[in-house]
Amino acid sequence: MDAQGAGRWRTAAGSWLRASNYARTAEFFLHIDPADPRITSTSRRAVDAFRAFARMHPGHDDLAGAVPLTDRNPVFPAMRMSEVTIPFGDAHLPGWWMTPGDDHDAVRPTLLALGGFDSIAEEMYFTVGKTAVEQGWNVLLFDGPGQGRVIREQGVHFRPDYEAPVSAVVDAVLGFPVVDADRIALIGMSQGGYFAARAAAFEPRLAALVVWDGIYDVSSANAALATPEILEHIAAGRDDRADELIRSAARDLPSLAWVVAKGTWTYGVDSPAEYFRRNEQYTLADGVAERIACPTLVIDAEADHSFRGQPQVFADHLLAPHTLLRMSEADGAGEHCNAGSVNRFQEALFDWLDATV
To answer: Are 314 and 201 in contact (CB under 8 A)?
Structure first.
């Protein structure tokens, strides 16, 4: 606030972005107890700080679904930003519509950016949003069911048929005047790789798909979280014993405690065993992957801790034209979603998109 009050706009912009990301990161760890009231307040701080950053950019006139942002001071005209809400059944999907500021009436390709198991829409600005606009793309960052403000403020859980929310998003952006209807791409990050692939299998209006990283079966991660004994109890329906073993293991493994607490909350289930079982519904088996028709970029992180090997399995099932891009530890990009070298991923992403869409 001091920098903004003094007119040091670049310092203020960077400060708001850091504040948003710091609050997001702090809120992430609170999910070990979904009843913690700080989840809502800290999440709102992350959104409010990002909203303050958005106010430093011009918006979009007469944009359907736009949330009015008062007190704009558009000192950064190179990017236009508008907060939007997209109707989805009895709920709504919040997001951010961002376009290049120059020649702002020009029709451009559009990237729809979707997070994963623990993402919020605002986080996607750092991973793909900013770079997309710099590369001349429109971009929509949005929360779907189970994510961001949709789960925190509306209580809408994850669902396997993610084509439903994505189709609502496509409907919305096709009403925006600067969207080339033939050049809409979808990217899903982390577990969003499953959500995006599932959506692309049933949404024919997508010109390209990027799965970052590729996931064929979300339940493949179960083996990285639980022992064979626990999984055997779950498969046999002995949930009480499985829950007992999971809770015992979680006392010594905070990461397991976090995943189970987060999963039961966002999936809308009552027990750890049911969370693991519910993962089995999030699969591209039975011909779903084969339905994808648009060109697809499949990212494979060499040392992925959650879904190692899944990108290759997914790619092996694709009938559509596709590229499997392996990101290596040597490049610093071998971890889940290339966490050590996101800029390397961004270069590869937009090289592929610009050549494909």
So the answer is: no
Residues 195 and 331 in one domain: yes
pTM over 0.70: yes
Our count of domains for the chain comes to 3
Burial degree of 130 (CB within 10 A; 0-12, 13-18, 19+): middle
The residue type found at 324 is L
143 and 291 part of one domain: yes
State whether 189 and 324 are in the same domain: yes
Same domain flag for 140 and 262: no
Paired tokens of 72? 């704009």
pLDDT in tens, the chain (357 residues): 688 877 888 999 999 999 999 999 999 999 999 999 999 999 999 999 999 999 999 999 878 889 988 889 999 999 999 999 999 999 999 999 999 998 878 999 999 999 999 999 999 999 999 999 999 999 999 999 999 999 999 999 999 999 999 999 999 999 998 999 999 999 999 999 999 999 999 999 999 999 999 999 999 999 989 999 999 999 999 999 999 999 999 999 999 999 999 999 999 999 999 999 999 999 999 999 999 999 999 999 988 988 999 999 999 999 999 999 999 898 888 888 888 889 999 999 999 999 999
Separation CA 15–CA 135 (nearest Å):
24
Residue 23: give the domain boundaries: 1-54
| DSSP-H helix ranges across the chain | 2-5, 9-30, 38-54, 124, 130-134, 148-152, 163-173, 192-202, 222-225, 228-235, 239-250, 254-267, 272-279, 288-291, 310-317, 342-356
d(CA 332, CA 254): 26
Measure Cα distances from 35 to 45, 278, 285 in Å.
18, 21, 35
207 and 248 in a single domain? The answer is no
Between the alpha carbon of residue 313 and those of residues 53, 152, 220, 230, 271, the distances in Å are 40, 33, 11, 25, 29
Q: Which residue has the tokens 């494909």?
A: 356
